[in-house]
Amino acid sequence: MQPHPLAAMPVLDFPPTNHLTLQTRQLLQVMGDTLVILVSRFAAHWLLAGFGGLGTGNDEEIVCWNWKSGKVLAVSRLSISRISADSQRMALPENGWFSSLSVLSPTSFMITSTANISPVLPTEARAVASVFPPVIQIYSFAPDPTRDITPQQPLDLEHVDDTTPRPVLVHQLHTPPAADGAIMGSFDVRPDPAFPPTPIGDAPMLGPRKPFTQDPGKGILVFDLQMGDPPPEGEGPDFPTTTNTYELFVLREYLVQLATEGQERLRRSRLPSTDEDRLDVWEVNKNQMWSEWGQTNARFLTQTMANRLWVRPLFTS
After folding, report:
1. Average of per-residue pLDDT across 207-211
2. Digit-coded pLDDT (tens) for 51-85
3. How many CB atoms lie within 10 A of CB 91?
4. What is the spatial distance between Cα 174 and Cα 250, in angstroms, rounded to a whole number?
5. Whole domain around residue 263: which residue ranges?
């Protein structure tokens, strides 16, 4: 396999890690010139304890590049070891389920989150769904014209890198509340990346034009949500219970619209302090409960499905 002929750098280096890793998951999406990669790492806490607490536990890291120029657009680590109320930081619960990713525009993405992230409330694991139901979070990594940052190459460990912009949380959508004591299982999205049309004109061509294209601003995102029934009275959360699976369907254009509106709030927060249109930093992130957005912009399938029957393989004879 050869490097892409339009890429200025043949290799894009992901940040190193000092993590005691047992399992990893990588999610990658490309939209136009933007490449976004989410790497999830899992290390059992008994293993960390055996090494005297070394390492960072479960963590996830997102890196955004312009894959043609090789420029790093943003970096953010999601780690349970550095819990913070900073709206640009995210945390994972100790159970170790991972986030999933969908790029909404060349300067924004959404992730599924099972941790409570708020610039006001303390960050906590959403192990009990009725207390902290999972959320859909939208982040912007639009460049800040007021800060001239030259990203460091190659990338260093995130906590010692102060040369790379961070994504900013601009919108958070809450899922339906669950029964008291319900145990959060997992929350994933099947994004099916968009295939925008090939530019017409002087743009370089690497092959024939695609006969069919997809508007990257439209479509449906399908979310898979798993929850365990509350344990019987008197039993602890480790008591074996039935796991239920639900599907959440959300219009992609709705999430893209929220990203666009959030990036406008972010732009206004970066205006000079004397500008009357300027927003305070705390006004950038907007939170919506399920009752405020779900009924008009989503469909929640409450019937448990043992198999993902909405995923249909294509057979040819």
Report:
1. 60
2. 444 444 567 788 999 999 888 898 887 654 333 33
3. 23
4. 13
5. 84-301
SS3 label, residue 227: strand
Q: Which residues pair with 26 in a beta bridge?
A: 39
**Which class for 242: exposed (0-12), middle (13-18), buried (19 or more C-beta within 10 A)?**
exposed
Position 26 in a domain: no
Comparison of pLDDT for 277 and 80, the residue scoring more: 277
**32 found inside a domain:** no
Q: Which residues contact 141 (CB under 8 A, 6 or more apart)?
A: 64, 73, 74, 107, 108, 109, 165, 166, 167, 168
Is 98 a member of any domain?
A: yes
User: Is residue 272 domain-resident?
Assistant: yes
Largest CA distance in the chain: 70
177: DSSP letter: P
Q: How many domains does the chain have?
A: 1
- DSSP assignment of 35-98 equals EEEEEEEE--HHHHHHTTT-S--SEEEEEEEETTT--EEEEEEEETTS----TT-B---TT---
Lowest-confidence pick of 39-43, 83-87, 131-135, 136-140: 83-87
